[in-house]
Predict the structure.
Amino acid sequence: MSRLIQGLAALTFFCSATAVLGQETVKIGAVQGLSGPPAIVDFGESYLQGNQLALKEYQASLPKMKIEFIVYNDEANPQRAVSLVQRLISNDKVSAVIGTVNSGNVAAFAPMLQQAKIPLMAGPAIATDITAKFIDQSPSYIFRCSMVEKYQIDAMLDWGVKNFKKIGLLHGTTGYGMFASSEIQKGMKERNVSLVAIESGAPTATELTSQVLKLKNAGAELVLLFHDSLELLYRSMPKADYKPVVAGNWGLSSLKILEIVGKEGLEGTVMGQALDLNDPKAAAFDAKMQKEFGDKYRWPVVAALGYDGMKLLLKAIDAAGSDPTKIRDALESTSDFVAVSGTPAKPFGPKDHECLDPENVFLGVWRDGRVVRLKQ
Amino acid sequence: MNASDLAQVLVTGIAAGSIYALMGMGLFITYLTTKALNFGQGDFLMIAAFLSMSLLTAGVPVVAAIPAVLLVLAGLGILLERVAIRPLSTALAGSAGSFAWILTTLGFGMLLQNTATVVWGKSSFYSPPLFSSGDKKVVNLFGAGFYLEELVVAGVALLVLGALYWFLFRTRAGKEIAAVAFDKPTAALLGINVRRTVIISYVLMALLAATSGVLAGPITTVQAHMGILFILKGFAVVSIGGFVNPVGILIGGLGFGVMEGISNYVDSQFGDLYPYIFVLVFLIARPSGLFSEVRTDVR
């Protein structure tokens, strides 16, 4: 019996090897923030984990193409990101690129990929205008599978103005924090409401007690949190005996934040989301990720978008081969896509290169150590 | 600003300022003996914060965890002096390369950062409180809430600085440091073991950084790159003090911390900038620091 099993195993290996030998090799490059500030690393590693699981599943399915996945770390540094993308284009001759965390880095290298006619699946960068800047350059090679800042801010403000009389803002003074602040203030103006307090903190701040006292004195019932070090607000609130509802970007759904702030501290915190773990598909994905990465897996929504982004690319490569322009066309015409995140079955079109649409973004809330959909 | 807010901002500022003062003291003490600053001192603080966090999380009692951290850091101080300072002081003395310690101390610090990243990962952590737990950690005084840790940090920092002052001016080893600071060859001629004195100063620097790390861990977020911030502020503080007087450094540290809190309260957008502007203006007016002395003096 064991000889029979050994024989079958050898045959399977032979068939697989023959199949692989006959396969066309397609190179996908990834530039991701894998070291540097902790928040960047959490984003970068989680998105990459999603990419890796999608690739592993693809390779296990005896695919048409052999994929070579080249991963570089941009260290959250724009110059390094640009030179790595140059290397992917010129030396590695990749057919598609994925990345990265910093929106500024994506803004720096996206024009190079557009010019080289190589599709980019941007993520997990969230700045609003990443694909919009290129969409009129038909054809645009810039796609994204990630949260879009404006979508989550809009969802938050719609809910916030309906439920709270006094809303305050705490933002960082980095490019990201300033951008979020201006989007929020613009959004509040559109809704004819004013913020009762606007406080900010440097990215290097180690504590935010002064800012928290100002928010408390202004009577803010809801604090919109867009500071890079999310945990600092929670650190100062007990001292000020201040318990507002906190809402912020999807960074607040990281299990790392749960680990740092704790279940009680985070209870009731609201954030932008695109993954509902009550959905059986999402729950199955969550279980797979936990099995694959163990305690290194800490951010379901970011990993899910990384997974969907990679799956979309692989589906396009399956249909188009290694030609970057054909991959771009295949991405744009993808339909019947089954996503684990909120990504629809036909994510892209000639004038829409975002995986998520505003209606796919919803608000999540921490309840008993788990992010669930906020009932509105 | 109402009274309770002021009290809260003051205590938070004094706690942070005490840590800056301890960092400033560390810079001061190595400057005395070797005319070199340990630019990796912030990373010593970071290692101490991580070690203390790991030991406390593993259930080691505070009374055992703190001496263990101090011991490890003292070893690191000796290692730094041996590999990054001593070879330069002998090989490059008097040459343009005598500033190479900037690079070697920074390099040593980066090694520590990378080691921390490998051991503890790249994310942030909260260190458990040293003397309290759970909800009880907030103490109410004058209508304002404080973490017990903040009061302890300020108290311990003052005690450590008092002890340092006593060591420098009331003990033989301290007086030897002063002698080495004035003139190394003369100190050696008088029978002082200069090499041992230099090592003692680096151990003291490491112990001050260790104290800062153990105390800073529970009141801020622990992560591999936290050191740079403390060393920058420590440098600003020691500049206010003028590299000559521990009391000046203490006043500079507390003042910087309080100013940081108040400026963040008044205008949070540029809150972290104002204290640096103040330091700049202050140094233009008094380039040699608070207790200015034209000549080097450690008294």
